[in-house]
Every structure is written in C-alpha cells, then in structure tokens.
Amino acid sequence: GDFAVVVKDKEGNVIPDANVTFDMFEHEFQFGTSINASVYENEEYAKKLNENFNTAVVEHMMKWGPYERNPEGAMKQFDGAVNAGIKYMRGHSLIWELALGSDGKTYLTPEYMFTEPVTKDRALFDQKIKDHIYSVCKDFYGRVTEWDVVNQIVTNHEFRDVYDDD
Question: What is the pLDDT confidence band of residue 26, given thresholds at 50, 70 and 90?
C-alpha cells in the first residue's frame, strides 16, 4: 500500500528530499505450492521452495486415508517445509468424499467409511468424522494456518448420496 516517510535529523528537523532506500524482506501475499517428500529428500528442492514461496500444502499425506496410515510421513513432509523456511502451512484436507486416488488402489479416505456399518449408521458416521477432525487438528494445532475442510465437493458426493447434504 501507499505510505509516507518523513526523515528528521536528531533535533527533529525535517530533512527535505532525503534519499531513502527500502528493501522489502517480506510481503503480505501468500505465494504457495504443494509439496511432497522431495522437501526433505532434496536439498535443492528445499532451497528453491524457500526462495519462491512462503506458503505450502502437503499434497497427499495429510488427506484422511494416507494420514491415518502414516502420520509420521505427513509430519515429516510438513516439518520439512517449515524447516525449509515456509511460514504458512495449509492443511489439506479434512474430508474428501472420494474413496480411491487416481492410481485406483490408494484410499484417500479410509475404506471403512464406505462400508457397513458406517454407511448404515449416521451416528457412527458422524463420530468417525468428528474423531478424525479432532485428531488431525490436534496433531497440527498451532502449526496449520488454515484448513481445506472439504475437497472437490462438486464432483465427489459419496457421503451426501447416503446421508444427504446436511
């Protein structure tokens, strides 16, 4: 934004037309990208991440299914980004009404969420979601600056097909 600078000498007298140079070391806009295991495996990757971004999101390991299977892997990627200098970390994503990933075999949401008794018992369904949200949010409490709550809600609606939009 716009700002004004008034340069004064030690007695408080204004110095007209003073030559002033500013060096912005940080901006308010969050420039971000998604990261993977390269963040802790590849020093050059981490260096370029720090040079170009101040915000990141773990591309896969914080999704419910992968996180439940390997929370240490998610933490390792998350910490790798923070250690590389990333200031703002986004959590992705708490809920995704999609069972399998693009490989056709990796569950992005735990398989049990798409089977009985969860698909037949609304209270159990709600409790499983609550338990997951409380658990992952607790694990990253104070470290995630924002969360994607639901991912790809237009094209994926398996839970809502069973339990409606509420």
Answer: confident
Q: Which candidate, 90, 95, 107, places its Cα nearest to that of 143?
A: 90
pTM value is 0.82
Residue 58, helix vs strand vs coil: strand
Tokens of 149: 């709550």
DSSP state of 145: S
Q: Are strands 146-147 and 88-91 parallel, antiparallel or unpaired?
A: parallel
- B/e letters for 59-93, b = 16+ CB within 10 Å, e = fewer, are ebbbbbbbbbeeeebbbbbbebbeebebebbbbbb
Sequence-separated (6 or more) residues with CB below 8 Å from residue 44: none
**Any idea how long the chain is?**
166
